[in-house]
Automatic annotation (TrEMBL):
Name of this protein: 4-hydroxy-tetrahydrodipicolinate reductase
Family: Belongs to the DapB family.
InterPro entries reported for this sequence: DapB_C (IPR022663), DapB_N (IPR000846), DapB_N_CS (IPR022664), DHDPR_bac (IPR023940), NAD(P)-bd_dom_sf (IPR036291)
Source organism phylogeny: Bacteria, Bacillati, Actinomycetota, Actinomycetes, Micrococcales
Active-site residues, as the UniProt record annotates them: H137 (proton donor/acceptor), K141 (proton donor)
Source organism of the structure: Nesterenkonia flava
This enzyme's EC code(s): 1.17.1.8
Residues where (S)-2,3,4,5-tetrahydrodipicolinate binds: H138, G147, T148
Pfam families per UniProt: DapB_C (PF05173), DapB_N (PF01113)
Subunit comment: Homotetramer.
């Protein structure tokens, strides 16, 4: 057994992201993988293995229970599972209030390039009249739009409101339902599900005579692992809830 202070239990280890996380933790010299749980495994295995940190890469139906278990047992948690709406986040913050030393990171995306692209989009959105998002993923993805797209739209909309930018102009009067995509805080978000894709997002910004496109592409799930490891190395020093990996990056704006 190693002397690593970061002893990790990966939940969802049988999935595509979870299996990559298992390999990444095993390869990290400052970490030890102590448990790799698959669907149906008892959460008691986490504490029995002596974990200090939990990575949750499961499914929306189980993520809240998993993270609550971690918090109640004083374990730091890094969460990549979607489904954390306002109500769930509020309940989590109430749990964390009882465990003030515990840190939880909920990250819609662990790819550092994606996190930076969303931050750049939020900064740029206030300078353009029109703003929309197109996200493109593999057809096995269970949620639409993606958590990354929702988070990006929220950041962009907040920036536009703060600077008094009106919603994007749109004269559409007739449409087939869904043709203009979902609307997340006044930002239209379009979801593509296509075989051969992994995870991709374009932010489209436009004003009279010009367009700015901010695009990020993940071609392999290995691209998410540096962010997972960054989360594991940082979460213990950031008690409470952090929403978005950008909260751990010194972006300078």
């Amino acid at each position: 057994m190693s002397n690593a202070e970061i002893r990790v239990a990966v939940l969802g280890a049988g999935g595509r992201m979870g299996s990559e996380a298992v390999k990444a933790v095993q390869a990290a010299e400052d970490m030890e993988l102590v448990a790799a749980l698959r669907r149906g495994d008892s959460l008691d295995r986490i504490t029995e293995a002596g974990a200090t940190h939990v990575v949750d890469l499961t499914v929306p139906d189980s993520t809240e229970e998993n993270v609550r278990f971690a918090v109640q047992h004083g374990l730091h948690a890094v969460v990549g599972t979607t489904g954390w709406d306002g109500e769930r986040l509020q309940r989590l913050e109430q749990e964390l209030a009882q465990q003030p030393e515990v840190g939880v990171l909920i990250a819609p995306n662990f790819a550092l390039g994606s996190v930076l692209a969303s931050a750049f989009a939020a900064t740029a959105a206030r300078y353009f009249e029109s703003a929309e998002i197109v996200e493109l993923h593999h057809p096995n993805k269970v949620d639409a739009p993606s958590g990354t797209a929702v988070r990006t739209a929220e950041l962009m909309a907040a920036s536009r409101r703060e600077h008094g930018v009106a919603p994007s102009p749109d004269a559409t009067e007739k449409q087939i339902e869904g043709a203009r995509g979902a609307v997340v805080e006044d930002i239209h978000v379009h979801a593509v599900r296509l075989r051969g894709l992994v995870a991709h997002q374009e932010v489209l910004l436009g004003s009279a005579g010009e367009q700015l496109t901010i695009r990020h592409d993940s071609f392999d799930r290995a691209s998410f692992m540096p962010g997972v490891l960054l989360g594991l190395r940082t979460v213990g020093s950031r008690p409470g809830l952090t929403h978005g990996l950008d909260g751990y990056l010194d972006l300078g704006f």
